[in-house]
Design goal:
alpha/beta; N-(1-d-carboxylethyl)-l-norvaline Dehydrogenase, domain 2; five-stranded mixed sheet; two-stranded parallel ribbon; Rossmann fold; 13% strand; 284 residues; single chain; 2 domains
């Protein structure tokens, strides 16, 4: 697992609970320790819900090991390598170049990108590896959300798609295959809706709380689009909208200026404590 953020930790937890051994890579021991702590807390909550036993939780945590830095030689025996780093093509390209040099010949390499072209990413590895490259798009929070989009690049073989579909089912998820298209399926539909909700705030149509209330009561959504935006991260929302706008070339995908301003101000949602709503604890 290349990257130990919220998504990386969630995927690691899900795979470990399914009996798979996971190696988490990241740039610092501090980040990795935080992820292990978060995974442990998540497993404890699952135990309290009586979904798993204490023994299950301990065994899952024991299947996760960590590596500080980029010594990808430790991936030599991995059957599946999943990239879960920030939505930056140059960063991903650099990582895939390095990983391809260490992975065994029949390893599947997958990206959890939410918006970058899987075909473009597949081209970052040697040609002989490209048929074993695909998108494996999990959704946050990974231990809870059932969907996985299995994205087929131009280069991806049917055997690779089949293997990832079977793996997803083993993880207790519902995989949906799709071709490589901007935003894939979910984000192509969901993120423009969030963007439109941001425009409603930007234009003074209604307050964020009221917009969320309208969508919860009027569309039967479990949470409002702005609360969801804060959960996903406004930087990710902006990144997806920029990809959709650039790739489709249609003005309906133009990112809302308010989202740009909030990202510039580092008001990214839950992960920074401030977004459309505040998540900072009161000092009173």
């Amino acid at each position: 697992m290349l990257g130990s953020g919220i998504m990386g930790g969630g995927i690691a937890q899900t795979m470990a609970l399914a009996g798979l051994r996971v190696v988490l890579f990241d740039v610092s021991e501090e980040l990795l320790n935080k992820t292990l702590k978060d995974v442990g807390s998540s497993l404890d909550r699952t135990v309290k819900k009586k979904t798993i036993t204490e023994g299950d939780a301990a065994a899952a945590l024991g299947r996760i090991s960590t590596v500080v830095g980029s010594d990808y030689s430790k991936l030599a025996n991995a059957d599946l390598i999943v990239e879960v780093v920030p939505e930056n093509f140059e960063l991903k390209e650099k990582i895939f170049h390095a990983v391809a040099a260490s992975a065994k010949a029949n390893a599947i390499i997958a990206s959890n990108t939410s918006s970058i072209s899987i075909t473009k990413l597949a081209a970052c590895v040697p040609e002989e590896r490209q048929e074993r490259f695909a998108g494996l798009h999990f959704f946050n929070p990974v231990p809870v959300m059932k969907l996985i989009e299995v994205i087929c690049a131009v280069q991806t073989s049917d055997a690779t798609v089949d293997a990832l579909m079977e793996l997803s089912k083993k993880l207790g998820k519902t995989p949906v295959p799709c071709i490589d298209s901007p935003g894939f399926v979910c984000n192509r539909i969901l993120v423009p809706m969030i963007n439109e909700a941001a425009y409603a705030v930007f234009e003074g149509v209604a307050k964020p709380t009221d917009i969320d209330q309208v969508m919860k009561l009027g569309a039967n959504h479990p949470m409002g689009p702005l609360t969801l935006a804060d959960m996903i991260g406004l930087d990710t929302i902006l990144s997806v909208m920029e990809v959709l706008h650039r790739e489709f070339g249609e003005d309906k995908y133009r990112p809302c200026p308010l989202i740009r301003k909030m990202v510039a101000a580092k008001r990214l949602g839950r992960k920074t404590g401030e977004g459309f709503f505040s998540y900072r604890k009161s000092k009173l």
